[in-house]
From TrEMBL:
This is Aspartyl aminopeptidase. PANTHER family: ASPARTYL AMINOPEPTIDASE (PTHR28570). InterPro entries: Peptidase_M18, Peptidase_M18_dom2. Its cofactor is Zn(2+). It comes from Mytilus edulis. Its EC number is 3.4.11.21. Keywords: Aminopeptidase, Hydrolase, Metal-binding, Metalloprotease, Protease, Zinc. It comes from the Eukaryota. It holds the Pfam family Peptidase_M18.
């Protein structure tokens, strides 16, 4: 198979993953399927663990964060951890706890703006919902995923005839003007279809009182449940247009949620694909895919929680009393989040000597104000790994007169003291409903993460300071 075919093949597999993942809950579910197929077994935080060399496990929290690990054949407590961290969430609209809204003859769905999205890009798109539903079934409460596979929502633009300065300035009010239309009240009345009775204990609101009955019916029909079985839900609004290979030369990926599903997916693939070299590894290899990065990581399932520390402590048990503390300086974490490619129409927004380009490799992110965790030491280590693995790299620094985003890197490195580097694949349209990157990034990221898992212990042992 030609190199180009390999690049396209990897990109198409990633696109399939994205299309199945309209919410962080779907990301975790699809990741679990990949891991189980590769021989990984599920652990629970509530149970004791007995970890042995060559074991492969994963655990979840809130069904929106997942940590998977493979224990090296030569691992013993006190040895290091080789970690790739990413996140499962993306900016989106989320259905409110009470979303039923009727305005001017339209049945609408109230939404919250989650994260720092480019909200005008959500206008005039064919939208649907995906997420999780808590279902009561024969005395048990079950966690089920739902993804309505048709366009049911739309946030319509105002006509230019009614807003003449539309092209000069458009800053919609996020509360009153970013509200999707589900149906017309006229048509709902004509339909006259009665909802199945929603029986709730006294003092509890019925779902059809909190949400549009038509939306409740769609969800219940999809899950084959009655409204009285629906305890609660968390739904993300998502574009129905599938991700696609684009460009005249089939070199681009046009997709939602590239930030940060590209790194979540490639981290999983790299962990699975390096099984063959696990026997000689003295470290434990981990991927940590956290929820809520887009809103600051301050949650029980976010990178700012104690989850990763608790997992690493449990994996260090069985050695000396200071096995965990001994392991930390031997460890290394890649914080993998998307990076800004130079924009052809706004090139003046990019620092002259640090203009990341598509196809030219994964981007190392630097910021002296610690918005990124990269240091000279962590950079040198990854450059050596990339050199040994044949993976191209490029550098990025934001302009001094421009704000700089941040990642889980500074959070995790400060919390745990693990040497960390911030990197990502270059892309355009970050935080738009539909983003753009190059097909090369998928295979380049997998190449780098595989090289890291396999070669980090060797490179670490070469450090003489």
């Amino acid at each position: 198979m030609a190199a180009t075919d390999k690049v396209l093949g990897a990109a198409k597999q990633f696109i399939s993953f994205v299309n199945k993942c309209p919410s962080p809950f779907h990301v975790v579910d699809e990741t679990k399927k990949l891991l189980v197929a590769a021989g990984y077994k599920e652990l629970r935080e509530t149970e004791p663990w007995a970890i042995q060399p060559l074991d492969k496990y994963f655990l979840t929290r809130n069904q929106s964060t997942i940590i998977a690990f493979a224990v090296g054949g030569n691992f013993k407590p006190g040895n290091g951890f080789s970690i790739v961290g990413a996140h499962t969430d993306s900016p989106c609209l989320k259905v409110k706890p009470k979303s039923k809204t009727n305005k001017s003859g339209y049945a609408m769905v109230g939404v919250e703006c989650y994260g720092g999205g480019i909200w005008h890009t959500w206008f005039d798109r064919d939208l649907t919902v995906g997420g999780r539903v808590l279902v009561k079934n024969n005395g048990s409460i079950e966690h089920r995923l739902v993804h309505i596979q048709k366009p049911i929502l739309r946030v319509p633009h105002i006509a230019i005839h009614l807003m003449r300065d539309h092209n000069e300035k458009f800053g919609p009010n996020k509360e009153s003007q970013v509200c999707p239309v589900l149906a017309t009240t006229v048509q709902l009345e004509l339909q006259g279809s009665k909802q199945e009775e929603d029986k709730k204990p006294e003092g509890q609101e019925k779902q059809c009182d909190k949400h549009q009955p038509a939306l409740v019916k769609l969800i219940c029909d999809e899950l084959k449940i009655s409204p009285d079985q629906m305890m609660d839900f968390e739904l993300c609004v998502a574009d129905t247009q599938p991700a696609a290979i684009g460009g005249a030369l089939d070199e681009f990926i046009f997709a939602p949620r590239l930030d940060n599903l590209l790194n979540a997916y490639t981290a999983v693939e790299a962990l699975i694909e390096t099984d063959g070299s696990l026997k000689s590894d003295p470290n434990i290899r981990l991927i940590c895919l956290f929820d809520n990065e887009e809103v600051g990581s301050q949650s029980a399932q976010g990178a700012a929680s104690t989850l990763q520390e608790l997992v690493l402590r449990r994996l260090s048990s069985g050695g000396s009393q200071t096995a965990f503390e001994e392991a930390i300086p031997k460890s290394y974490m890649i914080s993998a989040d998307q990076a800004h490619a130079v924009h052809p129409n706004y090139s003046d927004k990019h620092e002259t000597n640090h203009q990341a380009a598509l196809h030219k490799g994964i981007v190392l992110k630097f910021n002296s104000n610690q918005r990124y965790a990269t240091t000279a030491i962590t950079t040198t280590i990854l450059r050596e790994i990339a050199l040994k693995s044949g993976c191209p790299l490029q550098d990025f620094v934001v302009r001094n007169d421009s704000p700089c985003g941040s990642t889980i890197g500074p959070i995790m490195s400060a919390k745990l003291g693990i040497p960390t580097i911030d990197i990502g694949a270059p892309q355009l349209s970050m935080h738009s409903i539909r983003e753009m990157c190059c097909t090369s990034s998928v295979s380049q990221a997998i190449c780098l993460y595989k090289g890291f898992f396999e070669k980090y212990p060797e490179v670490f042992s070469s450090l003489k300071f």
